[in-house]
Amino acid sequence: MPRLAQCQALLAVVLASAAAMVSTSAPAQDRLGERAAMVETIKGHARSAPSAVEGQGIDPAVLETMGKVPRHLFVPEEQRGAAYRDRPLPIGYGQTISQPFIVALMTDLINVGPGDVVLEIGTGSGYQAAVLSPFAAKVYSIEIIPELGERAAARLAELRFDNVEVKVGDGYYGWPAHAPFDGIVVTAAASHIPPPLVEQLAKGGRMVVPVGGPFATQFLMLVEKRRDGSITTRQLLPVAFVPLTGGRAR
Amino acid sequence: MRAGRLLPIGLISAATLAHEVLLIRLFSIIQWHHFAYMMISIALLGFGASGTFVALARRPLVERYPAVFAASAALFGIAAVASFACAERLPFNALEIVWNPRQLGWLAAIYALLILPFFFGATCIGLAFCRHPGQIGRVYAFDLVGAGVGALGIVGLLFLVFPDTALRFVAALGFVAAALAATGMARHRWFAAGSLGLAAAVIMVWLPPSWTAPGPHMSQYKGLRMALEVPNARVVEERSSPLGLLTVVESPTVPFRHAPGLSLANTQEPPVQLAVFTDGDGITAITAYGGDPATVAYLDRTTAALPYRILERPRMLILGAGGGEQVLLALRAGADIVDVVEVNPQMIDLARNRFADFVGGIFSRPNVHLRLAEARAFAATTGERYDLIQMPLLDSFSAAAGGVQSMHENYTYTVEALRDYLAVLRPDGVVAITRWLRVPPRDILKLFATAAVALEANGVAQPGRHLVLIRSWNTATLLVAKSPFTGEDVAATRGFAAENFFDISWAPGISASDVNRYNQLDQEYLYEGALALLGPDRADFTERYKFDIAPATDNRPYFFDFFRWRALPELLTLRTQGGAAMLDWGYLILVTTLVQAATLSAVLILLPLWLRRRALGRAVHGLRFGLYFLALGLAFLFIEIAFIQRFVLFLGHPLYAVAVVLAGFLAFAGLGSAMAARWMAAVGGGSPVRGIALAVVVIAFLAAMYLLALPLIFERLLALPDAAKIAITLLLIAPLAVFMGMPLPLGLGYVGARSDEFIPWAWGINGCASVLGAILAALLAMHAGFTGVVTIATILYLVAPALLAGVSDRDRNPSPTA
Fold first, then answer.
1. Does domain B301-554 have CATH number 3.40.50.150?
2. Alpha helices (runs of H) in chain A, residue ranges in sequence order
3. CB of A231 within 8 Å of any CB in chain B?
4. According to the CATH classification, is domain B1-215 in 1.10.3470?
5. Which of A100, B61, B98, B195 has the greatest count of CB atoms below 10 A from its CB?
6. Residues 245..274 of B with a Cβ closer than 8 Å to A: which?
7. What is the ipTM of this complex?
8. Where does A26-236 sit in CATH, by number?
9. Cross-strand partners of A90
10. Is some CB atom of chain B closer than 8 A to the CB atom of A221?
């Protein structure tokens, strides 16, 4: 009997570890093929958006990360089938999860390095924070709608994106306790850039703001704070579109 | 026959037209106006469908006329409420169409539901024509006058009640028509009439408001819905009128802080604000003000503040009050006199009365005068002269970005408009216009081109010396000066731009090294555009630009129409990479609506023709008759719509234009219809074709005269009081409309005498043609201007009688074959 008990105990341990492995690694393994196809689509789009990728193409590390993050777990149940199509999807409360191509562009533009601290205004589903997570030392994210913020926080914790911290609140004032930030992503629509965010952007830091309505990103705005503290912006189209035909553009 | 027997026709016609106006209102709240327009245009094909239905089942229906009329009118009443209640609950998301073709299925379901009330309403009228073939002129007169009363009535009603309440009135009116019709039934008449009357009362009083309230079903992507998702945000006031639903929201936990165009150098947080949403979108802020100008110092750091660096204590005019942001800026800048014009009376009431304390009574100050007027009409009639005219940014970024305004005429930004504004400036005065900056630029370049042409028309040889253009990352402000800008002005502009990280895209003496410094575009299209538009390359640049940036004129006042067919394939190919966001949807939706309506109309017209081909006699007659009613429907709508659009300027308000011109056309055409038989007897010698031919000659003569005379009449009489202008409008419309009311009843009588099978079919064709005509008129006006639309209508009228005459020559002794 002791032998049997030992076997049972061993079996229990094995099963428990297997269950633990499933709970942590299954999402990453799940729908790998679809994610790989999504990454290929993004690469294709990026080739025709020389302005937004600053002529370099999207950083392979960004693409690799997007090939790993299980986007289907960030969208509502009824949208999971379309999770890896290169399109924005509704997540409720009038919010969307951005098109993967735009997420890739924004992550590439913000250009986060090891040790950097990033602030995100507008957590939404938490997907952008998850994609930023491997590149940054810490990602702080603020969501205005409590239900979305709480859900995203739980999801990110469950998927072990441990360096992402989410809080529900007003993004206007940024997160002074953790400032300055090397990168800031403002996904929440605003008529102007809140001064506290400009203030909390580190010198040499970058802020990215997608501009447009739901389901339609018009352009990406890149705000750069120079070493001398002056601010410049760049408007980057996610596509190569030249408004003048023929002739010469002077 | 007593007129009382025809009264139900007038009532159901009034209810049907009122329902049309109401649905556009309701779906503009739930969705967006251009989608509402498309849905309701297609739903109006219910008229055509009813023609088919009556044509196929005419005999049994006509035999039981009073009962069928009553049933159909009652079904209208039920469908008016039920179809809307169901349609608003469907999960259609217009914004997702580009990404998800399944949305088209929901759109089709909405069409199918909304078509029902129009089908039942039109069935009543089509049946009435079949029941009274000898009284077609009178039936049509009741139909038209009813529609005119319905148009005026619903506009009035929408000032008094919210649209969902108005829907109950419209449904009840259907039941009242049904009850009246039931009194003509052979049996059980009083029981039927009594129960239908009771149903009308029940709908008015008992119907639960939640069934038809649009609010809960508003798209979750509209600004209002998103604002209300924020904790503790709540609606504090709601006002409804035909001009829109104004919803005032307060958000104490997360304030709105609406300040478009604010500099990145600004450090001040805007004070507490209330947000005003129009039809659930397009936020305008009402900013709290306690009298201390320092609390709104941030406004100095918007692009719209530039003119105050050039002008001291200006006497100024603001075109569009909104929530009063520009008034605050003017007061802060020490403006001398501030005249403000606002087109929406309810917005005035909110800013001046309801929230007077909140805004610190700024609209009641002795030097601030808030007036209810349309910008152009005010500028043309005011005796004042100004140093500064501010045209603030009042539309939402998403509305501007989606190009949803492109199908609306707008007289604020035409060449003639700018000349009117320049005319009321003092010698050193400036017009300042602020717009959203879109990438690639469109509005700003068109505005720049418009200003250059307006200045040239005023005899300015070098317009570039009168223009300054600056931009932030999301707005641009254009200054147009009556006299050339001085070196000091340019220096002040440079200082202002540098302090605020704004870029100068044009100023006299600027060079390529001055531009694209702080807010960098891939290429400085604004500066390059300005250079090209001011030099010999203007035509070439305008032609080569992928968006339409040619100046708008009063004849073609579509400032917001930037669409060019040749950019479409490229933008569609790139649609998932931002191409869709660059498309101007207003124009595309008009075109897709036309394609859908034409396809469905073809089915509705050709189907009964084919099914009844034997009864209808030789197909060639059917075709020619069909074309006759098609031409009439198109021509009537072309003239009606061109006149509505043209009279916006004269009557000073789009609402007056729609109400007065539409009601005038319908009522006087109704009168013409009632007089048609007498006209035919007296002038046409008893021949309908001759009667029609003479009527269309008069129409053509009057239309040509109006084309020449209207601009002159408008110019001379614009300063008259509103009541006088409304009376003049009706007087001008009357003769034309009376004759436009004749060809349809005379034609119906003519073909009806050959085969009464034709009557419902012709009615259906005319219904389809009216739908197509309305859409085509809007499209043609964008391309050919009003002159083009009226000219085409005149040609259609002149061709129409020939279509009947040809039949008459070959077939002298017709006998009904039905």
1. yes
2. 2-29, 32-47, 60-66, 100-110, 127-132, 146-158, 195-200
3. yes
4. no
5. A100
6. 253-255, 257-262, 264-269
7. 0.86
8. 3.40.50.150
9. A96
10. yes
